Amino acid sequence: MKRTLLPLFFALSLLLGGCGWLNGSFVSVTPHEAPKQVAHADTITAANYKDFLAALKQLVAAGTEVAAIHVEEYPEKALEAGIRRAVYTVMLNDPIGAYAVEDIQYEIGSSSGLPAVSITVSYRHNSTELQRIRRAAGITQARSITANALESYEAGIVLLVGQYEETDFSQFVQDYAREHPETIMEVPQVTQALYGTGESRVVELIFSYQTSRDSLRRMQTQVKPVFESAVLYVSGDGDDYQKFSQLYAFLMERFDYKLETSITPTYSLLRHGIGDSRAFAQVYAAMCRDAGLTCITVTGTRDGEPWTWNIILDGEEYYHVDLLRCSERGKYRELTDEEMEGYVWDYSDYPACTGKPVPELTAAAETRPAE
After folding, report:
1. pLDDT digit string (tens) for 261-316?
2. What are the Cα distances from residue 238, in Å, to 186, 229, 241, 243?
3. Candidate from 110-114, 180-184, 290-294 with smallest mean pLDDT
4. Cα–Cα 20 to 30 A to 130, which of 14, 217, 255, 271?
5. Strand 201-208 vs strand 295-302: parallel, antiparallel, or unpaired?
6. Which residues 6+ apart lie within 8 Å of 32 measured at CB?
7. Structural domains of the chain, ranges and CATH numbers in brackets
8. Rounded to an integer, what distance in angstroms lies between the CA atom of residue 216 and that of residue 170?
9. In degrees, to the nearest 5, what angle opens at C-alpha 101 toward C-alphas 95 and 103?
10. Exposure of 200 in the CB half-sphere (CA atoms within 13 A)
11. pLDDT per position as a tens digit, 323-334
C-alpha cells in the first residue's frame, strides 16, 4: 500500500556533505544511535522509531533515492505511525532533510521474506550538492567561512552550523566589505535561507554580483600592490600625526580625482581616480590599519548630504579627518567635534573628539577582525 507523507509544501531543503552509510561513511545532523544492520553490510534494520528515524536521516544525508529498511522487530501496531512521524521530522525539522528533500514516499511490504519498508526520496538538491555543504561548529566559524567565500567571489555557499545563533549574514557581508576594501571589490546582494529547527541549522547564502568573478579577482590582484606600497610609504620613526599625513598624501596625490560612486569602489578609486566620500574613507582606514594606526570609518551627513569620513587616534586623542575636505583646503588637518560644522553623525556610536587625551582605546575603534 503506497502512501505519500507530507504535501510538497513541506519539502524544505537541507544538506550534508559526503555522507553515505551504504559506502561505509556516515555523518548525522544530531546525535543518534545507528540502526541495526544484519545479514549483509547493506541491510538496514530498525527495531523502533528511534532506529527508523536514524536510518531515514542517513539515507537523506547520503542522497539515497531508493532503499529498504527491515522492520521485523518493529511492533506492527506502531509501525505506520512511526513512519509518518519520522518522515515528517526529516522533511521539516532535520536541517539536511529540510534543505534537500522534495518528497518522501513509503510502502510497507517485505524484502527477502522479511517485513520491510520501501523508501523512495526525491530531492531538490542532489548528492553532489550535498557533498559541497560546509560544516561550522558555530556562528564564529560560519562567519569565517563566509568571509573566505566573499574574498574568492563565490556565487554562494551552504553551511551546516552545529550551534546556530540568529545572524543577519547580509549585514555581516556589508560590515566585512567595509572593513576589507583591499580584498572585497564589490559588495554582493545577499539572499539568505534557513532550514531545520533546533540547535543545528542549514544556512544557504546566495551572492549576486554585477561584475564577473574573473574581473573581480583581477581587480583584487591589481589593487593589492597599492596597499602594500602605502605601508612602505609611512615612516617607521615618525609620530602618529606624521604617519596619518603621509598616508593622506599617498592616497590624495595619486590622481586628480573625479567624485563619482562606483560598484567597485576600491578598484575605481586606486586605478582610475574615481570615487565618493565612502570609497576614500574606507580605503584610507584600511591603509591606516595596515600601518598599525587606529582609524574608524564614520557615516553621517555633510551639509545635509550623505557623507563618510574618518576618526583617527593621534597619540592619545581622537580627531575627525575628512580627506575630501582636506583636499579642498589643500592640506591634511585633524578636527575636533566642535570644528565639524555642517556635519551630523550618531555621537553615541563613535569616540568623542575633544582634543583631550583619552585613557585607552574605546570599543568603537575599528580593528581588523581575526581571520
Report:
1. 999 999 999 999 999 999 999 999 999 999 999 999 999 999 999 999 999 999 99
2. 34, 17, 8, 6
3. 110-114
4. 217
5. unpaired
6. 50, 53, 54, 57
7. 2-127 (no CATH), 133-208 (3.30.110), 216-349 (3.10.620.30)
8. 20
9. 135
10. 22
11. 999 999 999 999
Q: Which residues contact 107 (CB under 8 A, 6 or more apart)?
A: 1, 2, 3, 117, 118, 120
Render 19-61 in DSSP notation, one character per residue: --GGGT----SS--PPPB--SSTT-EE-SSHHHHHHHHHHHHH
DSSP strands (E only) in 201-354: 201-208, 258-259, 274-275, 295-302, 305-314, 317-321, 343-344
Count CA within 13 A, CB hemisphere, residue 297.
25
CA atoms of 36 and 288, how far apart (whole Å): 61
Please report, as a single letter, which amino acid is at residue 126: N
The residues, any chain, with a CB within 8 Å of residue 304's CB and separated by 6 or more, are none
Handedness of CA 353, 356, 357, 359 (dihedral sign): negative
Phi, psi of 82 (to 5 degrees): -65, -40
The pTM for the full model equals: 0.80
Residues 190, 156 contacting (CB under 8 angstroms): no
CA–CA distance, 11 with 91 (Å, rounded to integer):
6
